Amino acid sequence: MATPAAAPPPKRRLAHRVPIRLRQHWKLLTVLAAVAVGLSAAFGQTMIRPYITGDISVVTSAITEDIAGTVDLFDTTVAHTVSIDISPAEYADMISAYEKDGAKKWVNADLVIDGTAIPDAAVRLKGNSTLMALRGGFPPGKPDAPGPGAASFSQFMGGVGAADADDPTSLPLLISFDENADGRGYQGMTELSVRPGTPVLNEALALSLTAATGQPTQRYGYATYTINGQTTTRLLLEHPDEGYAQSLFDSDGYLYKADASSALEFAGTDQSVYAEKFKQLNSSDNGTLAPVINFLQWLDRADTEEFDAHLADWVDVDSFARYVATQNLLVNADDMAGPGQNYYLWYDLKTRKLSVISWDLNLAMTGEATIGPDDAVRLPPPPSGMPAPPTGMFGSKGPKIGNPLRDRFLASQRFTALYHDAYWQLYDQMYADGRAHALLDEIAATVPVTDGLSTADLAEKVASMHTWIDQRTAALDELRAG
């Protein structure tokens, strides 16, 4: 059988590069434009001063200065470089702020991407478990090779080493182009995530498989990464912002980011209660948390009969079945039900339904490869003797495990067939036709060898990932045939 062509990371839809509010009000704007032309013709040189009522941002974009760069950052056919310079004082300030109380403080940095200098950029620490060592949690300097077998430190950390303040390359960072320069962006992005670990093939592959099955995900690419003079290989990931939200679907909607300490639970109708639980990424100036709150109120009150009969009125259940099935197929223990509460909610303004968008797949494809569609996906236990996470790392009550929407959906007999149909269709697209292997080889060919990643190390990690895919495929083939 011919090897299937690997799918590239998803590209943004051209239509959604137009601001969402402009697209929502295009008819009104067309009429106004026609009136303006007519008045101009009627009055000749008389100056007409239009007055626009309502939100002026309807006709503006969040990005007013978009840096083009030299090449597309996510073009896998060319090599990429990213260099960050942070002054010793700013670096120490960033580390000490986090060590003190977990604050992720923005600091100034000079940035160069593929030869394009971006002065006065900003960076901050990003993540939770990866940063534990900075506050007296997991020890730094552990191996970072994901692979099959018994639980290990690297599996517990999702195949990435812990952060070490003495090694700036170990720090997961978020780069902001507009924190110090309002309206500035880079190739349509306001933020870019530097993922921890080398080369985290599992996350890149999980992102590619999600995209290859037609589901919304994030674009990524590998680069030779230098920070304060130290060089390694890093995975770069677009960080969801307003532009990302506008590129997801052909229809308009609101995109909400769930906070790591949030829970998909009703806490009253006061929107301020949810301000730190869900962040609206687009149209925030005229948006609302009402779609989320209304759904949570219904979910809280719905008994089993109501849930089965009317969930489809609130949630795109076909899309949700694919999301849940995908997380199991990828053995991702840190999805919307994991300790990081990693997911986005999309509210479609046309259908008035919610969908779940996956996010942060660095724990995918590292756990037990033999689980089936009805098995729970769990984080591997920490190795014996590993210290507990620092107090407050996941909130006062510790990490939140489980999610009422996902848990009730999987427990409902009403949606069993829908889930299983989605599961095996996605299995065929991900594993049965060899796509996972083909995508992995294509990804590996784009990973640069650097001081932090040798040719031998890369080959070993690629082989380990192929072994995991073989184990996953064999287990599910046997289960399906059984």
Q: How many structural domains?
A: 3
> What radius of gyration results from the CA coordinates?
23 Å
Number of helices: 13
Name the helicity range: 25-40%
| Low-pLDDT residue spans | 1-8, 13-60, 139-159, 386-398
The CA-CA distance between the termini, in Å, is 24 Å
How many E-type strands?
Answer: 13
| Overall mean confidence score, pLDDT | 83
Strand content: 15-25%
- What would you call the shape? globular
Largest sheet: 7 strands, mixed, barrel
Given the helix and strand composition, which structural class is it? alpha+beta
Task: Output the strand order for the largest sheet.
Answer: 2-3-4-5-7-9-8
Element order, helices and strands?
Answer: HHEEHEEHEEEHEEHEEHHHEEHHHH
Explained architecture:
There is one protein chain. The protein has 482 residues and is α+β, with helices and mostly antiparallel strands. It has 3 domains: 18-59, no CATH class; 65-242, no CATH class; 249-481. Helices cover 33% and strands 15% of the residues. It has helices spanning 20-24, 26-43, 88-101, 153-156, 201-212, 242-247, 290-301, 304-314, 317-329, 404-411, 416-432, 435-444, 455-481; strands spanning 65-67, 81-85, 107-113, 116-125, 173-176, 184-186, 191-194, 220-227, 230-238, 253-258, 278-280, 343-348, 353-358. Strands 2-3-4-5-7-9-8 form a 7-stranded mixed β-barrel. Strands 11-10-12-13 form a 4-stranded antiparallel beta sheet. It has a two-stranded parallel ribbon with strand order 1-6. The longest helix has 27 residues, at 455-481. The radius of gyration is 23 Å and the shape is globular. 41% of the residues are buried. Mean pLDDT is 83; it is low at 1-8, 13-60, 139-159 and 386-398.
